[in-house]
Amino acid sequence: MRTSRLILTILSALMFVLVVVNIVLSLGNQSMQLEVTERQQFITQSIQLEGLSRQVIGVLANMAIKTNDQQLKNLLASSGVNLGPPTEPPAGSK
After folding, report:
1. 63 and 72 in contact (C-beta within 8 Å)?
2. What is the pLDDT along the chain (94 residues), one digit of tens a residue?
């Protein structure tokens, strides 16, 4: 009787420890899921803004070429937008 009570007490203590470990792991999992969700939202928004950004750059490039605005051309060039004629690949590079 006494040994069965001791065994049950040990098992219940073990179950309590396992429940606490489960809670801690669950909370850690929730914080990781929140971080992944925030990153996914950032990526989605970046993809949505990429199209708008391309349109704005296109309009600015067209305006710079039509008005021959050197400041606007310099701004676009400093951002990596080449307004020169398209460059042909070297003849033997294929």
Report:
1. yes
2. 889 999 999 999 999 999 999 999 999 999 899 999 999 999 999 998 998 988 998 899 999 889 988 898 888 889 888 877 655 555 655 5
- Tokens for 31? 């914080």
| pTM over the 0.85 mark | no
List the chain domain ranges. Answer: 50-80
Q: What is the largest CA-CA distance in the chain?
A: 98
Whether the Cβ atoms of residue 47 and residue 65 lie closer than 8 Å to each other:
no
Residue with tokens 């460059």: 87
Q: Which of 51, 49, 57 lies closest to 83, judged by CA? A: 57
